[in-house]
């Protein structure tokens, strides 16, 4: 049986960024963010058909495929597919997460209005060479005692496709 390649821009956005496939996105995010628990019951997909970003006019760089969703609790999730390594990739992931978090407020609004922001980044290359996990999750932690801070306001989650080794049947 042939499947559509979700690494293609149109397919990625059709599978994860359309109203018709909202249940697929909810299931995917519950699996990746919450380990399969059905925490997300509903979400709103925001502007899924933005063109991917290219690095300063360099047409050799594959565009990034992005989808943004807002969960019922107000958390913002930025889902990104990156098919090839590029210069500044790590910085761009952090920038997009910080931007999604900061763009929630208008000048003068109360910081209490901020909701958590989560970046779910799917890579078609190995990002963490020294780790076999295909899903890696990061939050702010204290450097020496390793305790969490900022109440998971900013989270980075990476899914590395080359490490995923599950058969269909």
Task: Give an overview in words.
It is a single chain. This protein has 169 residues and is of the alpha/beta class. The chain has one domain (43-163). 21% of the residues lie in helices and 21% in strands. The protein has helices at residues 9-16, 22-34, 89-102; strands at 43-46, 65-71, 76-82, 117-123, 135-138, 154-160. The chain has a six-stranded mixed sheet, sandwiched between helices. The model is unreliable at 48-63 (pLDDT under 50).
Shape, please? globular
Number of helices: 3
Percent in helix:
10-25%
Low-confidence stretches: 48-63
The count of strands amounts to 6
Order of helices and strands: HHEEEHEEE
Profile the largest sheet. Answer: 6 strands, mixed
Strand percentage lies at 15-25%
Number of domains: 1
Identify the strand order in the major beta sheet.
1-2-3-4-6-5
Query: What class do helices, strands and sheet pairing give?
Result: alpha/beta
Distance between the termini: 12 Å
């Amino acid at each position: 049986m042939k499947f559509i390649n979700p690494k293609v821009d149109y397919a990625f956005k059709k599978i994860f960024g359309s109203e018709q496939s909202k249940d697929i996105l909810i299931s995917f995010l519950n699996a990746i963010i919450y380990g399969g628990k059905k925490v997300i019951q509903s979400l709103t997909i925001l502007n899924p058909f933005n063109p991917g970003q290219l690095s300063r006019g360099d047409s050799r760089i594959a565009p990034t495929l992005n989808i943004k969703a807002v969960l019922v609790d107000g958390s913002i999730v930025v889902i990104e597919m990156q098919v090839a390594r590029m210069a500044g990739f790590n910085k761009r992931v952090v920038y997009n997460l910080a931007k999604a978090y900061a763009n929630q407020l208008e000048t003068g609004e109360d910081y209490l209005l901020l909701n958590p922001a989560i970046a779910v980044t799917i890579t078609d290359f190995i990002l963490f060479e020294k780790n076999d996990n295909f899903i890696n999750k990061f939050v702010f932690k204290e450097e020496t005692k390793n305790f969490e801070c900022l109440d998971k306001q900013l989270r980075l989650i990476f899914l590395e496709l080359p490490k995923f080794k599950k058969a269909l049947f």
